């Protein structure tokens, strides 16, 4: 079965959830028309890229796809955040959610919803990759890949979402600690935490060879991420390392970072303010790397106490006018 049919079948099965989707049929019709129009042009050579004034590129295909991608990633982030809020709630917070009628799902239902969201993210990422590949094939260009890079810089790429990483960790956490693992769907292959040469990564596979592999080594300290945070560009660091890179104290936090500060990896500006604390990933790594976690906990406690003391000493001096 071709991917387009598989995708349509999947989205039809999700109709009751009213999820936004990639309009593959519509986008393919646009490309078909563009191919037909260009086939009449004798000056169009296989080595050329898509013309700068191509009405398909400038006015129809890319704006339509960008709009759909924005809706998909927005919906995914909102649903994932809500689900994780339910799972991580405790004490009085959990009682409030229950009172409001939001906390009514058992662990099996939570696992199913988390799995569905991961599948939704991966199958849409595959759909976007395939339609951009088809665009480049029709136009003998690399405009599709260029568009993908531009979308990543706009943070509209669903595989960049920190909530995808959190959902994968959430899926593993619930599966291993709450209920027995059941058979996965035909679309979804197991999420897993893997170690290669001592370096951890989160992996997940979808049908049609779509795979996501998230490196969990902090590029600053070169250790497994501890108390991990994801910057808005999608790169993951230890919280204390990210604060150091942003030239802020752990007391002030990443929200206090200067917008001119850049991500240590991609050098993109203004990526700190919207950083997301990856709590599910923190739980997963703490349970999977217990000896390392305990050692890191002890060393970080010393550093955090030191920074907090320095912060309040500075505040006192400022207050006293010293």
From TrEMBL:
Keywords noted in UniProt: Metal-binding, Transferase, Ubl conjugation pathway, Zinc, Zinc-finger
UniProt catalytic activity: S-ubiquitinyl-[E2 ubiquitin-conjugating enzyme]-L-cysteine + [acceptor protein]-L-lysine = [E2 ubiquitin-conjugating enzyme]-L-cysteine + N(6)-ubiquitinyl-[acceptor protein]-L-lysine
An example Gene Ontology molecular-function term: zinc ion binding
Record-linked InterPro entries: BAH1 (IPR033326), SPX_dom (IPR004331), Znf_C3HC4_RING-type (IPR018957), Znf_RING (IPR001841), Znf_RING/FYVE/PHD (IPR013083), Znf_RING_CS (IPR017907)
Enzyme's top EC category: transferase
PROSITE patterns reported for this sequence: SPX, ZF_RING_1, ZF_RING_2
Matching SUPFAM superfamilies: RING/U-box (SSF57850)
Protein name, as recorded: RING-type E3 ubiquitin transferase
